Amino acid sequence: MIVSPDASIHIAALKCLINLIFIFMIGVSVIRSWNRLFDGQCLVSNNYIIMEVTRPLSNCSMCSNVKQALILDNPSKEQFQKYAYSGQPLLIRGALQNWTALNQFNLTFFRNLYSQIEKDEESECQFLPFKTRYNRLQEILSSDTLMSDKSWYVGW
What is the pLDDT of residue 119? Predict the structure, then answer.
């Protein structure tokens, strides 16, 4: 195949342009990461893949002989302490009967609570979205469609 000198120049210019764009994108990424490092924010954003890859391996040997969970009905503090750190799975029934959070914690409560707090730079690092379209706590608390979303779960 014979390529004219003009076409060769155009192909070389296109390759050069693609390389410059690639170098620019890498440079922007490095600068953003560098700025995050010195701004006190996370160098690498927290997401599900990073959380899964970096979590410690679990040692499941303590449950190898477990056949069923122990069931405790609304145990006292003393009853619960006997099993709290035993490694035995527990099913606690009735523990939330008198829990005031059931009546006080709702979306309005958290919206009011977090609207009074200045945005903490580190809060972006600690927000744990799981199977949700939300990436920041502020997005959830300001969403008008949150309650109509099929399902979502976040931790912070």
Answer: 62
How far is the CA of 58 from the CAs of 87, 89, 155, in angstroms?
A: 13, 16, 20
Q: What is the pLDDT of residues 97-120, one digit of tens each?
A: 888 888 898 888 888 887 776 665
Q: Which SS3 state, helix, strand or coil, does residue 27 take?
A: helix
What one-character-per-residue DSSP string does 82-103 give? HHTTS---EEEESTTTT-THHH
- How far is it, in rounded angstroms, from Cα 152 to Cα 135? 12
Residue recorded with tokens 């979303």:
149
Report yes or no: 20 and 26 within 8 Å, Cβ to Cβ. Answer: no
> Model confidence over 136-156: pLDDT tens digits?
777 878 888 877 777 777 776
Average pLDDT over residues 86-92: 87
DSSP category for residue 136: S
Residues in the chain: 156
Task: Find out whether 15 and 95 touch, Cβ atoms under 8 Å.
Answer: no
The rounded distance, in Å, linking the Cα atoms of 97 and 105 is 15
CA-closest candidate to residue 125, choices 18, 17, 37, 4: 37
> What is the per-residue pLDDT for 25?
79
